[in-house]
Amino acid sequence: MQRLTLAIEDFNSVFIRLPTSDRLTFSTLSVLHTLSRTGPCRLSDLVRTEQIKQPALTSAVAKLERDGLVERRPDPSDGRASMLSLTAAGRSVVSRRHADRVQGLRDLIDRLPPADRTRLLGIADVLRQIVRLANEKPHGRSGK
User: Fold this and answer.
1) CATH topology of domain 2-136
2) pLDDT surpasses 50 at 44
């Protein structure tokens, strides 16, 4: 498990730094990515998913609003709260970043031997399953 963990950590370091056309902070991009995956949500929901303190997240969201990437609307279930969602410009940033990462990853994978490319592409479903399991319920140390 140690070897797998190190490999994933090293891969993540490479992956999140693949060149992209948009120059935004990691926290800002994470908020945009989360909103693109989950749809509209409250700031309190983002505090849980983004793992940064509320003042920092509030500041990041305010900047995203000023830049026209995120908008607030009243929460239909609670008029005192607001829901955050991506604007068309925000969706465009997420889409461009995804396309940039696809190309960057493709360039790296193309340098692998064919058998390794096939093996690597085959684990996408396993990774999706791990993400699904992580999202099903809170996880902690299992002692295993």
Assistant:
1) Arc Repressor Mutant, subunit A (1.10.10)
2) yes
> How buried is residue 19: exposed, middle or buried, by Cβ count under 10 Å (0-12/13-18/19+)?
exposed
Q: What is the pLDDT of residues 1-28, one digit of tens each?
A: 999 999 999 998 888 888 877 778 888 8
Q: pTM score, two decimals?
A: 0.79
Query: Which candidate, 90, 107, 83, places its Cα nearest to that of 24?
Result: 90
SS3 76: coil
Residues pairing with 73 in the sheet: 83
72's torsion region: left (phi>0), alpha (psi -120 to 50) or beta?
A: beta
Cβ atoms 94, 118 nearer than 8 A: no
Q: Which residue type, as a one-letter code, is found at position 49?
A: T
Tokens of 57: 């997240």
What is the per-residue pLDDT across 55-95, written as a single tens digit (0 to 9) for each? 999 999 999 999 999 999 998 888 788 999 999 999 999 99
Whole-Å CA distances, 137 to 20, 39, 61, 128: 33, 19, 26, 15
